[in-house]
Design a protein that fits this description.
- The protein is an alpha/beta fold.
- The protein folds into two domains: 129 residues, D-Maltodextrin-Binding Protein, domain 2; 87 residues, Periplasmic binding protein-like II (D-Maltodextrin-Binding Protein, domain 2), CATH 3.40.190.10.
- The strands form two sheets. Strands 5-1-6-11-7-10-8-9 form an eight-stranded mixed beta sheet, with helices on both faces. Strands 2-3-4 form a three-stranded antiparallel beta sheet.
- β8, α6 and β9 form a beta-alpha-beta unit.
- The chain starts with a helix and ends in a 7-residue tail after the last helix.
- The structure holds arginine.
Length: 254
C-alpha cells in the first residue's frame, strides 16, 4: 500500500513538473519551429492588417527566428495571458512590447531589448501634458501594463481607468470618458499621425523603459540564442531598415 502511495505521489509530482517544463532550445531546434505569442492589438508593434498579423515586432521576430534557423508559429492572445502562458508552456517566447521591470523579471526571463521607449501622456486638452498635469484627472491605461504601474505612483491622480486593450483606452479618450491616455510614445505618435483631426495632443514622457521579448523563467539558452540573433539583425542593417520603415528612425536602445 505504502509503495503504491509513494509511486502515485511520485508520478503526480513528475507530471506536474513536466507540465511546467518549458521547451529547451534543443527541443525547439529539433522541432524546427518556435511558438511565439503576441497580442495583436498594439499598432504599430503587433497588430492585424485585415486578417494578417503584422507590425514591427512581428516582422522583427520573423527576422530573428529566421536567423536562428527556425520557422515561427504565431499565437495571439489577450495581453494579460501572455507572460503566464510562458509558465504554462503554452508557447516558447512572447514579444508584445513588454517593458523590463523587476516584478516581471521575477516570473520570466527577458532577452536583450529590441527597442527603447516609454509612457507618454495623450490628451484632447492642450493643458494636460505632463505627469503633474494628471493630478485631479481621470487617466486611461491598458490593464497589466507598466503604464498602469507608473501612473498609479503619480501623486493626486483622481482615477485610473483600466481597459483590456490599449485600443479601448484610446477610445475612452476620444469619447471624452477620461481626461488623458497614457501609452507608448511610438503608439501615440502613430495614432496622432493617422487621425490628425481627432484632436489628440502629444504630451510629455512619464517614464522610459527597455522593451524585450520574454521566455519561461530560466530558459536561458533560448533567451541567449534569441539575443544573439537579434544582435546580428542590428549589425547587418536589417533591423535599421525595418525600424526606418515603421518609425522613420532607429528605435534600438543606446
Ligand atoms: N510597454 C508597456 C508595458 O510594458 C505596454 C505593453 C503593451 N503591449 C501590448 N501588446 N498591448 O507594459
Amino acid at each position: 500500500m505504502k509503495f503504491f502511495r509513494i509511486l502515485a505521489t511520485t508520478l503526480l509530482t513528475l507530471s506536474l513538473l513536466g507540465a511546467a517544463q518549458a521547451r529547451s532550445l534543443d527541443v525547439i531546434r529539433k522541432d524546427g519551429r518556435i511558438i511565439v505569442a503576441t497580442e495583436g492589438q498594439f499598432a504599430p508593434f503587433n497588430y492585424f492588417k485585415g486578417s494578417t498579423l503584422t507590425g514591427f515586432e512581428v516582422e522583427l521576430a520573423e527576422l530573428v527566428t529566421q536567423r536562428m534557423g527556425l520557422k515561427t508559429e504565431w499565437k495571439t492572445v489577450g495581453f494579460d495571458a501572455l507572460l503566464t502562458g510562458l509558465q504554462q508552456d503554452r508557447w516558447d517566447l512572447v514579444i508584445a512590447s513588454h517593458g523590463v521591470t523587476p516584478e516581471r523579471a521575477k516570473a520570466v526571463t527577458f532577452t536583450a531589448p529590441h527597442y527603447c521607449s516609454g509612457g507618454i501622456v495623450v490628451s484632447l486638452d492642450p493643458a494636460i501634458r505632463s505627469a503633474k498635469d494628471l493630478a485631479g484627472k481621470v487617466v486611461a491605461v491598458q490593464t497589466g501594463t507598466s503604464y498602469l504601474e507608473s501612473v498609479q505612483k503619480i501623486p493626486g491622480i483622481k482615477e485610473m481607468k483600466n481597459f483590456p486593450t490599449d485600443v479601448d483606452a484610446r477610445s475612452a479618450l476620444l469619447s471624452h470618458r477620461v481626461d488623458a491616455w497614457v501609452t507608448d510614445r511610438f503608439v501615440a505618435k502613430e495614432m496622432i499621425a493617422k487621425a490628425p483631426n481627432a484632436g489628440m495632443k502629444l504630451g510629455d514622457m512619464v517614464f522610459v523603459e527597455r522593451i524585450a521579448a520574454a521566455v519561461a523563467k530560466g530558459n536561458q539558452a533560448l533567451a541567449d540564442a534569441w539575443s544573439k540573433a537579434l544582435a546580428q539583425t542590428m549589425a547587418d542593417g536589417s533591423y535599421t531598415a525595418l525600424s526606418q520603415k515603421y518609425f522613420g528612425e532607429d528605435v534600438r536602445c543606446h
